[in-house]
Amino acid sequence: MTNESAALYLVPTPLGHLGDITQRAIEVLRQVPWVAAEDTRHTAPLLRHHGCNARLLAAHRHNEEAAAQRVVALLAAGESVAVVVDAGTPGISDPGARLVARVRAAGHRIIPLPGPCAAIVALSAAGLSEAQFLFYGFLPAKSGQRAQALRELAELPYALVFYEAPHRIVDTVAALLVAFGAQRTLVLARELTKLFESIHCCPLGEAAAWLLADANRQRGEFVLVVSGAPAVAASGEGGRVLRLLLDDGLPPSQATRLAHAITGAGRKALYQEALSWQAGATSTRQS
Ligand code: SAM
C-alpha cells in the first residue's frame, strides 16, 4: 500500500463461528502492514489462520490515547492500519471510537468494512414488529443507575437492544421486569454463532423463571432485545392538537409540551403518540 492509499480499516471479526469473516476482511488483513488489536494474544491466531503477516500493536481501552498517537504516526508515514476487536465490529461497545476520531481529525482516510455485530445478529432473529430499534449496549453495573437508565427508556416505542455478561444476566432481567412490566416481549440471544447458541423469546414476566430453570441458560454472552412500549393513543382534543403540531414540523417533545399545555391531556400518552408518529413518519419517508 502506497503513501497515498494509507488508511485506517475497521475490520469486523467473527463473534464465534470462524467462518463469519468476509473475503474483503481477510484481504485487508493480509495487505496491511499493521493490525491494531484489542487483545493481541486473542487476534494473533486469527491472523495466522488466514495467512496474515501484519505486525500487531495493542489498542485497548486502557491505552486508547497512546495507541491513537501511534496509529496516526503510522498513517502519516504511509502505513495502513487495520483495527480489530476480540469479536464483532470495532467501536460497538468496544474500543475504537476515540481512535477513529483522532485519525479523522488528523485527516486520514477511514474505511469501515461491514461484518458481524452481535446486536444486529440478535435483532435479525428477534422477529419483533417494531420498525425502529435503539441500541443501548451495556447498562450501568450499579443497580440504582441501571434502574434509572431503564426508567428513561420505558416509554420509548422502539425495540431496545442491550448487551449483557453472564454474571449479571439474572439481575438485569429482574431490572427489566421492574422497569417495563411483565407483558413486553424479551428475546434472550445467547452464544450467537457458537456451539451452544440459543434464542429464547418469552414475555418478560416469564424470563426469570426460564433462566433459573437451567444454569446453562445463564452461561455465555447475551444480547437482550425488548419489544417497544405499546402505544397508548392520545385521543380526543389532545391527540388532535398533537398531530397538528407534529404535522407542522415540531419535534415530539415540544409538540407534547404544547398539546399538554393547550388541552390538559396526559403527557405520557401524548409523548408516546408523538414518538410513534415520528417513527411512522420516518419509516414512510424511507420506504
Ligand atoms: N463489538 C462487538 C459487536 O460488534 O457486537 C460487541 C463487543 S462487547 C465488548 C461484548 C458483548 O457483545 C458481550 O458481552 C455480549 O453482550 C455481546 N456479544 C458478543 N458476542 C456475542 C455472541 N456470540 N452472542 C451473544 N452476544 C454476544
The backbone outline, from C-alpha atoms, is globular
List how many beta strands DSSP finds: 10
Strand order of the largest sheet: 3-2-4-1-5
Unique ligands:
S-adenosylmethionine
Structural class: alpha/beta
Please estimate the helix content.
Answer: 40-55%
Distance between the termini: 40 Å
What's this, in brief?
With 287 residues, the protein is of the alpha/beta class. It contains eleven helices and ten strands.
Structural features, described:
- The structure is a single chain.
- This protein folds into 3 domains: 110 residues, 3-Layer(aba) Sandwich (Cobalt-precorrin-4 Transmethylase, domain 1), CATH 3.40.1010.10; 109 residues, Methyltransferase, Cobalt-precorrin-4 Transmethylase, Domain 2; 51 residues.
- The longest helix has 20 residues.
- α9 runs antiparallel to α10 and α10 packs antiparallel against α11.
- β6, α6 and β7 form a beta-alpha-beta unit.
- The chain has 287 residues and is α/β, with parallel strands linked by helices.
- It is 44% helix and 17% strand.
- It has a 5-stranded parallel β-sheet, sandwiched between helices. A 5-stranded mixed β-sheet has the order 6-7-10-8-9.
- The chain is globular.
- The protein has 11 helices and 10 strands.
- The model has no long low-confidence stretch (mean pLDDT 93).
- It binds S-adenosylmethionine.
- S-adenosylmethionine binds next to α5, β7, β8 and β10.
- It is an enzyme of class 2 (transferase).
- It is found in: Cytoplasm.
- It comes from Candidatus Accumulibacter adjunctus.
- Its main location: cytoplasm.
- GO terms for molecular function: rRNA (cytosine-2'-O-)-methyltransferase activity.
